[in-house]
Write a structure and sequence with these properties.
Blueprint (H helix, E strand, L loop, with lengths): L9 E7 L9 E4 L2 E4 L4 E2 L7 E2 L3 E2 L9 E7 L48 E3 L10 E3 L6 E7 L11 H6 L21 E3 L2 H9 L3 H12 L3 E3 L14 H18 L8 E4 L7 H9 L4 E4 L4 H9 L4 E5 L9 E6 L31 H15 L7 E6 L8 H17 L7 E5 L2 H11 L2 E2 L1 E2 L7 E3 L2 E2 L8 H23 L7 H13 L12 H30 L26 H4 L4 E8 L5 E9 L4 E4 L10 E4 L2 H4 L10 E9 L3 E9 L10 E4 L4 E4 L3 E5 L5 E6 L5 E12 L29 E2 L7 E6 L3 E9 L2 E8 L5 E7 L10 E9 L6 E6 L3 E6 L19 E3 L2 E6 L4 E7 L3 E4 L5 E9 L24 E11 H16 L3 E7 L4 H7 L3 E3 L9 E8 L5 E7 L13 E4 L7 E9 L16 E2 L8 H4 L17 E4 L4 E10 L6
Parallel strand pairs: 10-17, 10-18, 11-12, 13-14, 14-16, 15-20, 19-54
Antiparallel strand pairs: 1-7, 2-3, 3-6, 4-5, 8-9, 15-16, 21-22, 23-28, 23-48, 24-27, 25-28, 26-27, 28-49, 29-35, 30-31, 31-32, 32-33, 33-34, 33-39, 35-36, 36-37, 37-38, 38-47, 39-46, 40-41, 40-43, 42-45, 43-44, 44-47, 45-46, 50-51, 51-56, 52-55, 53-56
Helix pairs in contact: 2-4, 4-11, 10-11, 10-12, 11-12
Length: 1113
């Protein structure tokens, strides 16, 4: 149908050949249905005509029925005349046409049948494919849009495959492979992951029928991401990737007309401002969600503000606005009593039956609609019709909804103003848009989310910390894998391996995956699948690095490429290749970041007699051997005999690699061993800008600026909250995977682990370039503080677990940094690693907060950083982390981050399992993680943490290549040991967000400006990039800019615009409305392929390239 995309769509029409002859202007010739009038005028303004021949379909129908494909301007209502060609009965179809008879009209029914439906008209959808037909609302009535939809958890109580195939049904009945087995009326689905699995099993005939349903507007894809992503723990790069891949797969299956226009985030447990911003950049016209804080919901419902304009960014202006709808009902399900796979009573409309219940059910529905409509300001009402997981019995659902529509509308003859019909989110939004209502705005976010006064959904910010870290590792490796696949010109040979990691990394963004709210066996399955897909991408990196390293084309054959090896246990200081070194080992460090980096390599060794050669073959003088901390050596999962790590620095070029060589040598030339001494008193360590002070127990005490002599008190504390073990009855909620609820007494921080509580031990490891403070705190808790003498950023490497629970009390471990900064209870966190959000103790910008939980009610998601600052002193303390965590700054001058949780009770939300991870030996989970501490002036702080956060998300990938004895000189001769793919490093405020192979021999390229408009005097300015001159070995000769998910040309995209007031509302007008930036957007210069990128912009391009040696440059 692509060649007829602007023509009237094909509709299935069943013709009763007994009572209704074939329309006079159609005839059957040679088995083809011919339209005698030759053509219908197309819907565009070009004035062209289209004509199509349509095959007659007979095989699957009873002889008394014939189905024809008829060109129509819309789906006719039942009994409606069509173009004066005869009387046609229209009946809803399943995906596979089946024999259907018209439902006879029962004249004796006490409730009259429905009047004819309003004429069908297409949604005004600007340039987009006209693939939806909506029932026109009646202006004088309350229009009730019944929206059947599916909600598919890509893992939760069961694994992905168990849900898809319907196994393990004692957990939850859900055979997702049946999700599209029947689709009548209108229905919507959101997760592409399951649909893709289902699609691969279908015949081409069945696929064609699905495409017809989509083009008819009867099956609608909303959001269309691979999953419905979480919004608290996800990084914006991963959100973009999973949404882009979902949209790509939809277009692969259905065609270009399937581009989603609706954001559908009905199940995540809180909503971020950056996710709203991304939704606008995906080209969505509107956003629907269901979970809203109970206090916020009460106020919005009373003021009819459940629909509003969410200002997704203060940096890019109105283009970040998105119309938003909050569902006021029971989450995203049908009204109580109308769930026809749950509590729903079937509608019995046989008047002869003793169980006849039409009037009672209609009355109940009308009462519900009347009350529900009070939440909204227009005469359009959105009612979702589904609940958890896909509809299992479509026939039962649609039969009862058909009856509900018929009998509710029948009441109109008795004066009812309720008009009910099937709809979709797109149709509903179109109707609301046509109402031209003026909306209020919102400019912050919806964190934290509480469903009642004791149920703050802030525990999942930290739950399953190992899985959260593994997701971050997976994203890092995916970006490197995609880049190297392009740079090495692999030509699609490894698409299967790249795609596997794409898809499992996308699955990890699901709102019951990265959140840690799944069952333990599901979490294990996620980790296993991610590990397997990372291993697949290792094959890509192996071939790509080897190919790029070969100096001559002749040495780039598969047979001659050296094998690159990987060490997946470097996180526990173990590596087979460095520990078994007996000759030489080439160590290649690939930097996926668009700026040069200084990378500190820490390689476990069993023999100190190792010499390090740099990329030129010269000896590296500053190499050191550091002891591996004792708590790391005792990790049960560690399979290693190494007691020490070889430490040296490797400068790596932007988007490139360097190769160092390790070779055995005489003991006299061994790396320098640092001085190791026990801590017996207070001491200090110097950085370029600070003196760092420690007490006699090895705890941080203060930082003193070396230039001004100013002291800032900075004390580190370790503590835990005892998890409340409630009954989950009424207000007595337990802490669990979702919920963070400490025992009430612990607002006063009773459980601080002080030196008097245990045998604190500390030792100092000193070298000329690096000082480490090894700090043993408890049997389950230790850390190493690393101070690089050439950097003012302090690294904290911690080990935590197993958390002791012998006292039968769950515990939630936190790290605190207490300063003497005056913060007034104000602190700052990132939004999905991008925007900075202002937080304030016991405060919400858009409603007056009644404080019921002073700790968990002040917790927020921290993806990359959390900061406090003293406006008078002009100082900022920033903590960066290596995974998503929960954190707060509500205590004066303090930052707190939760690192680990072990809880012995379920919180009653649905997972039905305590958050008690077994670890490798069944005795509890041990994790290892890192923080980075930065203290700076407010003016300099943003530049420090912005650039470090990007480097941490794009850490170098290290590979190893074993060399035979004496082969090292030969390796230097035959291989490149210093390589960059860029002509020059990108501007310091520009990040290469995406580089990957795309469809039809194109590349997908994203560049982003990662500063906000008011953060830096130097780097908050627009930056210019010439796409032609970015890369060294190939040239970009053609580029098309698209929406963020690479689905539509940005120049032709038109989103719906709504009227809204300038004020957010009476509580928040002053909070976020005074400094909204409205930049001028600069389009791609198609002459020199240059683009000017404004602060916080992400620019997405589909580009074509050719090798540089084909170019006259």
């Amino acid at each position: 149908m692509n060649s007829y995309r602007n023509c009237w769509e094909i509709k299935y029409v069943f013709v009763n050949t007994t009572t209704c002859p074939i329309p006079s202007n159609f005839s059957i010739m040679n088995g083809q249905l011919h339209d005698k009038s030759v053509h219908y005028r197309e819907s565009s303004s070009s004035g062209r005509f289209c004509y199509r021949r349509c095959s007659s379909k007979r095989s699957s129908l009873k002889r008394s029925w014939t189905v024809y494909l008829v060109l129509l301007a819309g789906i006719p209502a039942q009994g409606q005349k069509i173009q004066n060609t005869g009387h046609v009965d229209y009946f809803k179809t399943t995906l596979i046409p089946s024999p259907v008879s018209p439902t006879p009209t029962t004249s004796t029914t006490t409730t009259p049948g429905s009047p004819p439906q309003s004429p069908i008209k297409p949604v005004v959808n600007h340039h987009r494919c006209d693939n939806s037909r909506c029932t026109a609302p009646v202006p004088t009535k309350l229009n009730v849009h019944l929206v059947p939809h599916t909600h598919d958890d890509v893992g939760w109580l069961k694994t992905v495959d168990q849900y898809y195939y319907g196994s393990q049904s004692h957990h939850k009945v859900a055979g997702v492979h049946r999700c599209c087995g029947q689709s009548t009326g209108g229905s919507s689905t959101s997760s592409t992951a399951f649909f893709w699995k289902w699609w691969r099993d279908q015949s081409e005939e069945h696929r064609t029928q699905v495409r017809a349903l989509v083009n008819e507007g009867r099956l609608e894809f909303i959001s269309g991401g691979w999953v419905m992503h979480d919004e608290a723990n996800t990084h914006y790069q991963s959100i973009i990737d999973q949404m882009t891949w979902g949209h790509r797969r939809l277009q692969d299956m259905i065609g270009p007309c399937v581009v989603p226009t609706i954001g559908w985030q009905i199940d995540p447990f809180g909503h971020s401002r950056e996710s709203a911003h991304l939704s606008a950049m995906f080209g969505f016209d509107g956003l629907f969600f269901a979970r809203l804080d109970y206090q916020d919901k009460k106020l919005r419902s009373a003021e009819q503000r459940m629909e509003f304009i969410w200002q997704g960014s203060g940096d890019v202006g109105r283009s970040a606005n998105i119309w938003t709808h909050v569902m006021a009902g029971p989450l995203y399900g049908p009204p109580t009593g109308f769930d026809w796979e749950g509590d729903g009573e079937p509608i019995i409309d046989d008047p002869e039956s003793d169980d006849y219940n039409v009037n009672r059910i209609v009355d109940k529905f009308l009462d519900y609609v009347s009350n529900y409509s009070a939440n909204y300001a227009t005469n359009q009402l959105f009612i979702p019709m589904a609940h958890f997981h896909p509809i299992q019995s479509a026939n039962n659902w649609f039969t009862n909804m058909d009856k509900l529509i018929r009998y509710v509308n029948g009441r109109q003859r008795n004066g009812s103003n309720i008009n009910v019909f099937y709809s979709t989110p797109t149709c509903y939004l179109s109707a609301v848009h046509q109402s031209n209502n003026t909306l209020t705005t919102k400019a912050d976010d919806f964190f934290p989310y509480a469903s009642d006064g004791n149920t703050y959904w802030t525990g999942y910010y930290t739950s399953r910390p190992a899985l959260k870290r593994y997701e971050r590792v997976g994203n890092n490796f995916l970006q490197a894998c995609k880049q190297l696949d392009v740079l090495a010109g692999m030509g699609g040979v490894y698409d299967k391996e790249v795609t596997a990691l794409r898809e499992w990394q996308a699955v990890m963004q699901h709102h019951d995956a990265i959140t840690g709210t799944e069952k333990q066996h599901v979490a294990s399955d996620y980790a296993l699948k991610l590990a397997k897909s990372i291993a697949g991408c290792e094959r890509v990196v192996n071939r790509a690095v080897a190919k790029l390293a070969a100096k001559s084309m002749a040495n780039r054959t598969v047979q001659s490429l050296p094998e690159q090896l990987f060490c997946q246990q470097l996180n526990v200081s173990a590596c087979e290749w460095t520990e078994s070194l007996n000759t030489s080992l080439a160590v290649t460090v690939y930097n996926p970041y668009g700026q040069p980096v200084r990378h500190i390599l820490r390689l476990p060794i069993t023999n100190r007699s190792v010499q390090v050669l740099d990329p030129t073959g010269a000896a590296v003088n500053q190499t050191y051997v550091f002891p591996i901390p004792g708590p790391v050596l005792s990790l049960n999962e560690r399979d290693s005999e190494a007691l020490e790590e070889l430490v040296f620095e490797a400068p790596v070029p932007a988007l490139g690699f360097v190769t160092y060589t390790l070779k055995l040598q005489d003991a006299d030339d061994s790396p320098i061993a640092p001085v190791v001494r026990k801590v017996v008193g207070d001491f200090s360590v110097q950085t370029p800008g600070f003196d760092v002070f420690f007490d006699r127990n090895g705890r941080l005490q203060a930082l003193r600026f070396r230039d001004s002599g100013r002291n800032v008190s900075l004390r580190q504390e370790f503590a835990y909250y005892s998890s409340h073990s409630g009954t989950n009855s009424g207000p007595d909620r337990a802490s669990g995977a979702y919920i963070f609820l400490p025992e009430p007494k612990e607002f006063a921080t009773d459980n601080v682990i002080a030196p008097a509580d245990c045998n604190y031990r500390a030792q100092v490891v000193e070298s000329p370039v690096l000082t480490e403070v090894h700090h043993y705190i408890q049997k389950y808790l230790s850390q190493v503080i690393r101070i690089d003498h050439r950097s003012d950023t302090i690294e904290i490497d911690y080990t935590c677990g197993p958390i002791p629970v012998a006292d039968e009390s769950g515990k939630e471990i936190v790290f605190r940094w207490q300063t003497d900064l005056n913060t007034g209870g104000v602190f700052y966190t990132d939004s999905n690693g991008r925007q900075t959000m202002r937080r304030r103790r016991d405060y919400r910008p858009t409603y007056k907060l009644n404080v019921t939980q002073p700790v968990s009610g002040n917790y927020y998601p921290v993806n990359n950083w959390i900061a406090i600052w003293d406006e008078v002193a002009g100082l900022q303390l920033t903590m960066l982390n290596d995974r998503a965590q929960g954190g707060t700054g509500f205590r004066e001058g303090q930052i707190e981050l939760m690192v680990h949780r072990r809880i012995l009770h379920d919180d009653g939300i649905g997972v039905d399992e305590p958050l008690d991870e077994p670890g490798v030996d069944g005795n509890g989970l041990t994790i290892r993680g890192r923080f980075w501490l930065q203290l700076a002036t407010v003016a300099a702080a943003t530049e420090l943490h912005r650039e470090l956060a990007n480097r941490l998300m794009m850490e170098p990938v290290v590979t190893f290549n074993r060399l035979a004895k004496g082969q090292a000189p030969h390796y230097y001769k035959k291989h490149r040991t210093n390589y960059t793919a860029l002509y020059n490093p990108l501007p310091r405020n520009i990040h290469l967000l995406t580089l990957e192979r795309w469809a039809n021999r194109t590349l997908l390229l994203r560049l982003e400006h990662f500063y906000q408009w008011n953060e830096s005097r130097e780097w908050s300015a627009p930056a210019r990039v010439e796409l032609r001159d970015v890369f060294r070995e190939f040239v970009v000769y053609d580029a098309v800019e698209t929406t963020l998910s690479a689905t539509e040309n940005i120049l032709t995209t038109r989103r719906l615009q709504f009227r809204y007031t300038n004020a957010n509302n009476h509580l928040s007008q002053a909070f976020n409305q005074t400094h909204r930036f409205e930049p001028k957007r600069h389009e791609l210069n198609t002459t020199d392929l240059s683009v000017i990128i404004n602060p916080m912009e992400i620019r997405t391009f589909i580009v074509r390239i050719k090798p540089k040696y084909y170019c006259n440059m």
